[in-house]
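Hi, here's the filled form for the chain we discussed.

Project: internal
Contact: R.S.
Residues: 199
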Amino acid sequence: MKTLINFLETTKYRWMKKAFWDMGKYVNALKHIEEHTPKFIVEYGGGQSTFMLTEFVNYLNYGGKVVGYECNSYWYNDHIENGWNKHNNIKLVDIVEDIYQPVVEEYHYAKVSGVRYIHPIEDIEGVDFVILDGPALQDFKSEPNTTFNLMDIVDYLGYTIPYFIDGRSGTRNFYGNNTKLPNCFGLDYGTDIGDSKEI
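And the returned structure, exactly as it came back:
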């Protein structure tokens, strides 16, 4: 039986153990993939991690796929040069800054600054696991707090999905800790399986 530990101990992938597992990065995302075998994983902030996730999904051989979105052409080209886009599943897209102001009684003036990767929502029809690992929010003039794409996906699909946020306290607060900011369906966004520093 193919397992996460087998994958990480295989000579070909041992560098991934050092770069991710041993550092406590993406641990819960990898465990979630092993346990739940999501069919369509979408990652915002594509790169080395997109390559690792794709290699792991292919290793498990259950028919899943991974797409990563990158908004910075410098990093996109770097990913190509380093072989992280070997599977041609990291897509270079535009990104916009936006303001979200929910219609919530007794909280009319709540505004959240964020960013949104631009791609047709239909391109990710059927997504069942979302990873938020981008962009570098400090690079934007409006000092955004979060990435809005998970909200857009849940609003469009009308059901919740598991998601993983790599660090990003502002994004984690927006999706998990701020009960004053429901989406237009009044749904939770899903389960944040969280980052882990424990092996």
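Let me know if anything looks off before we file it.
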